[in-house]
UniProtKB/TrEMBL annotation:
Protein name: DNA-3-methyladenine glycosylase II
Assigned GO CC terms: protein-DNA complex
Domain HhH-GPD: from-to ranges: 63-215
Lineage of source species: Bacteria, Pseudomonadati, Pseudomonadota, Betaproteobacteria, Burkholderiales
Native source species: Thiomonas arsenitoxydans (strain DSM 22701 / CIP 110005 / 3As)
EC number(s) from the headed UniProt entry: 3.2.2.21
Family: Belongs to the alkylbase DNA glycosidase AlkA family.
GO biological process: base-excision repair, AP site formation; DNA alkylation repair
Length: 221
């Protein structure tokens, strides 16, 4: 990404969480948006799926920053071999040397340790996230070193499966809307916001289908 998105670059629901009903979301999108109607038919049979636990999901996102998928997997495998389990209680005691031996840079070692410390000390509340509004969860995530707005958005969408997140700082979303709605002409975040108004309250699902228009194979975060 060209820059770290600011808080205003994201649109999230401020109400209490509602469950993601994929079929209901698709029915709404097909009814309100002709582009979505075509994309959903083109990519029928695939849908968003959550995986992993919150700590490991965030740790992997930090490890994978600015390196290839293959390199990130190698580092992750080494970290898994270095501790009984990749969990806060096992990582808080590791020093920089041990983390660097797994392949982490000094900067990422600090990020992973900060993540472990905040989870271990109860400074973030993953056991409450299912009941918290999106904005409150993102605010907690942004206190962790190495986690920016984009990572928080991806966590809300891919791990917690929140249905109404519109990550306006995501370049793929901007590019996809440009190609599918504006014939490739440059678009602003305001224009993307206007397009996505028809998707609410299922803007995460609309975003997912825009990503599929660029890459048919879903990416796991």
């Amino acid at each position: 990404m060209a820059r770290a998105p600011a808080w205003s670059d994201t649109v999230v629901s401020t109400k209490g969480p509602i469950p993601l009903d994929w079929d209901k979301a698709c029915a709404h999108l097909q009814r309100t948006d002709r582009v979505m109607r075509k994309l959903i038919k083109t990519h029928a049979g695939t849908r968003l799926q959550s995986r992993g636990d919150p700590f490991q999901t965030l740790a992997r996102s930090i490890i994978g920053q600015q390196i290839s998928v293959k390199a990130a997997q190698t580092v992750w495998d080494r970290l898994c071999a270095a501790v009984p389990q990749v969990a806060p209680e096992h990582l808080v005691g590791l020093d920089d040397e041990a983390l660097r031996a797994c392949g982490l840079s000094g900067r990422k070692a600090g990020y992973v340790r900060d993540l472990a410390v905040k989870f271990h000390a109860g400074e973030v509340h993953p056991d409450q996230w299912q009941e918290m509004p999106d904005e409150a969860i993102a605010a907690e995530l942004l206190t962790i070193r190495g986690i920016g707005r984009w990572t928080a958005d991806m966590f809300l969408i891919f791990h917690l499966m929140r249905p109404d997140v519109l990550p306006l700082g995501d370049l793929g979303l901007i590019k996809g809307v440009s190609q599918t709605y504006f014939a490739g002409e440059p678009v602003t975040q305001s224009e993307v916001r206007e397009v996505a108004a028809a998707w609410a309250p299922w803007r995460s699902v609309g975003t997912w289908y825009i990503w599929r228009s660029l890459d048919p194979l879903p990416v796991a975060y």
